[in-house]
Design brief:
The structure is a single chain. The chain is α+β, with helices and mostly antiparallel strands. The protein has one domain: Molybdopterin biosynthesis MoaE subunit (Aldehyde Oxidoreductase, domain 3). The chain is 32% helix and 35% strand. The strands form two sheets. It has a four-stranded mixed β-sheet, sandwiched between helices. It has a four-stranded antiparallel β-sheet with strand order 5-3-7-8, with no helix packed on it. Helix 2 packs antiparallel against helix 3 and helix 3 packs across helix 4. The chain is globular and about 50 Å long. It starts with a strand and ends in a 5-residue tail after the last helix.
Amino acid sequence: MTAAVTIRIQTADFDVAQEIAALTNSRTDIGAVVTFSGICRGGQGGDATTALTLEHYPGMAEAEIARHAEEAMTRWPLTGVTIVHRVGRIVPGENIMVVLTASAHRQAAFQAAEFLMDYLKAHAPFWKREETADGTGWIAAKTDDDEAAARWDKD
């Protein structure tokens, strides 16, 4: 069977269970699905997030995510990848994104999911504006995210 790759950027919420079902439907070659769900967190106090607004560069974001999904497919024996990322205004408790990786065996699915998450967190062309009780501001890139992504660089 061929590998299924689905990439969507959308404003609407999604159902993680439906995404898993779509990836695995009628597939008998899948032995493991690793799921990472990113959810908007709020926190407590004056600097607690009351909402995030995510923006992207249409076309470029999808192409960059697809390029990294294809790289994951070449590095690990995957049978499928699904990446759904929301844009627009998202409040605490709502889904931001989901990464699903499917393989015959769990190790490949786990490693590919980590690779894709590290890429999305550090390098995907999304911009986040955070709202708090104290105001609104853009979220800067974090050194920890860059370091996590750097571990996947090929020598």
